[in-house]
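Hey everyone, long-time lurker, first post.

I ran two proteins through the pipeline my lab uses and got sequence/structure pairs for each. Pasting them in order. The first:
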Amino acid sequence: MRNLVIGIVVLAVAGAIAFFALAGQNDQPAPATPAQTTAAAAAVASEPTAAEPASATTTAPAETVEESAGDVEASEIEANLTLAQAAPPKTEGRFKAGEHYRELVPAQPTVTGTDKIEVVEIFWYGCSHCFAFDPYVKQWDEAKPADVEFVRLPAVWNGTLQKHAAAFYTAEILANNGKLKDPEALHDAFFKEIHVNKQPLTTDRSLEQFFGRFGVSAEDYNAAAKSFELDQKVRTAVDLTRRYKVSGVPAIVVNGRYSNISNGVRSYEDYLALVDELVELER
């Protein structure tokens, strides 16, 4: 009996050993097939390393490489620093929108169309304030920064103003054609003829004689005064003064974007200080 029990125990132990040995063999991964081996090698080859960033998991072309999160963060910081250096925040100045100047929305065309910051003085020869302001604006013009362009634009609200605007553009055309040697001297004399000598200069005859004092022949004067070029210049002045919403003179418009509010500026020095501040806003 004892021998029978020992035999049964031996058989049980041997069976258990055989069972665990077989189970251990089943837990081992099966040998890879050739196809599986190829796929695994491709996956390993495409896996990113420390020196090579991962390719984008989109439909982008293979040569397009997506930046890592660290690279994006660094580039954004650098861009923000660049913008901060290039465009520092504007500080509030002495003059305020709505009180001393208005912003023209949308911005309107400029007279010259240059890449400089354009400052336009809208004036009328018959305006006593324009006459008084002229020496101030001339002095400012001589000292203005190199990136600023100054230009005059005659007001054209009625027949008399249009007559004087035509005279202004006649002088401009004659100067461009070499027929008028000193247009600035004529400009000064035009103001004085009206405000000092009390001559209105509103007839063709009086204007022809006035230009004659500056060496312009009657033929040259009439050719310019009746030209298609002059007509186009006056039409442009009509359009721009309407676009700039100017209702009084002298008026200042900066770069087609800002115009002064006359009742908010009390002196000619203030006019020009406002101009400087608006120019700075455009930089």
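...and the second, right after it:
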Amino acid sequence: MERSRRFYCDLFKLEMLDGNERFCALGVAGSHVLLLFKAGESRVPVQLPGGLIPPHEASGQAHLGFAISRGELGEWQAILARHGVAIESTVVWPRGGTSLYFRDPDQHLLELLTPGVWALY
């Protein structure tokens, strides 16, 4: 948990919102939340004063995308290099967008994508 939290906070400058030994909530861009859970820790319900969080679990490699501006692409390539994060693949899409693919410490696929990847972005 600590290794993953450090990776996301250091690389993406995410804000730590809440957390303990089983989970971590990180603020993304002031309007989204990235939840990280320790493997196996979310399989049991959690009773809180305000209600019950039902059990849930995901396994395997996930794919997360983070939107960046076209002008940030070179800066992000340099940031990844400074953090020792290898870019696994770069894709230039037909609409003109670019995606950089790389892995987090748990081997989840992360993508930085510029406008022009999707019709809505």
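Reply from user beta_strand_b:
Welcome! Quick read of the second one: The CA atoms of residues 89 and 101 lie 5 Å apart. The chain has a mean pLDDT of 94.
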